[in-house]
Design goal:
Elements: E1 5-7, H1 17-21, E2 28-31, E3 36-39, H2 49-53, E4 59-61
Bound molecules: iron/sulfur cluster (SF4) (2 copies).
């Protein structure tokens, strides 16, 4: 079982950098209305790639 990444919504500025980094399809989803990202936890592999590119440290894995 993988550990999913989590989004701290109050930190996310909706820059979408993480979206293009994730190697899995349809894990990180941009919510237009909120201008923020959410995670489809059942599809996230917990690889942590997105965590390393977020400029706001809004993404964490394993907590
Ligand atoms: S941890 Fe990996 S699989 Fe999960 S959202 Fe981030 S880049 Fe995608
Ligand atoms: S990289 Fe970080 S701040 Fe930018 S959309 Fe993704 S979670 Fe939000």
């Amino acid at each position: 079982m993988y550990v999913s990444v989590r989004v701290a919504k109050e930190k996310c500025i909706g820059c979408k950098i993480c979206l293009s980094t994730c190697p899995e399809a349809n894990v990180l989803l941009y919510i237009k209305e909120e201008k923020k990202v959410m995670v489809n936890e059942s599809r996230c592999k917990g690889c942590g790639l997105c965590v390393t590119v977020c400029p706001k440290e809004a993404l964490t894995v394993g907590h």
